[in-house]
Write a structure and sequence with these properties.
The structure is a single chain. The protein is mostly helical and about 325 residues long. The protein has a two-stranded antiparallel ribbon. The protein is globular and about 60 Å long. It starts with a helix and ends in a 21-residue tail after the last helix.
Length: about 325
Amino acid sequence: MESCLHKLSLLLLLLVAMPCALAQTEVGFYSTSCPKAESIVQDTVKKHVLNNSAIAPGLLRMVFHDCFVHGCDASILIDGPNAEKTAGPNLLLRGYEVIDDAKTQLEAACPGVVSCADILALAARDSTIEVGGLTYSVPTGRRDGRVSLASDTANLPSFVDSVTVQKKKFADVGLSAKDLVTLVRGHTVGTVACQFISYRLYNFRSSGGPDPTIDPAFLPILQSLCPQNGDGNKRIALDYGSGDKFDHSIFKNVESNRGILESDQSLWQDSTTKNLVQRYIGVGGFDGLKLNIEFGKAMIRMTNIGVKTGTDGEIRKVCSAIN
């Protein structure tokens, strides 16, 4: 009798633990249900990046903006007059056509199996490979969310955020200061519109002058790239001198007070984030290879924010609309 009760207790413990075990992503989630899922996404990303290199940083930013709102559930992809993609911070995101292309192929190969959230997480990884980053294994098994509201995007990290505000926003979703600095590495590729940096060059915080943290020798270069009262839609590299290569020069620019975004440059004004920047540029034994590894780890942590698994959410048939 005692033996039976013991076995029953073990069974109950297993049943209680099972939902927790199922509510996790795992590497190779589609190995039997859709064996070619990851290769289909990778080939699709490669095709689009070869046609337009701006797609790579676009996909990186898209997954970042998705995960900070309702978790990584592809809510950024949903169309609608008040959906997330209509919010100010998301208006210039690019790469939606890549996700749609991959989804169409996956629905043909494995109908109703691969989520849009997983496609986005895989595409972000594959985009870094196309611009020189190292690969990393992406845990999959996410399901898609059913809610997408522009009004829910207020907590997205902003280019005007101080380092204190950035650290809090990251902490609110379970990420550390190290994750913050490591993920800023994504700014080593891509561009930004002059309208988002001109305030630093001419009338910073209504001072009538430039942001004093900008290297004085660098200021005229930026002003020539983004003239006062010039075209606010003109785009310049986020990582001056190395805007198309996935390297660590963004951190060298921050060290030299040549960070393009105010939020990036603010990393040098906090002892914790400054120390991490220094380590990533070589102080303390870090090098490019280790930074690649750390970036992959940080991406895995970020793309597991608030994931929906098991029976939560759905597998959308089309990424831009709930079922």
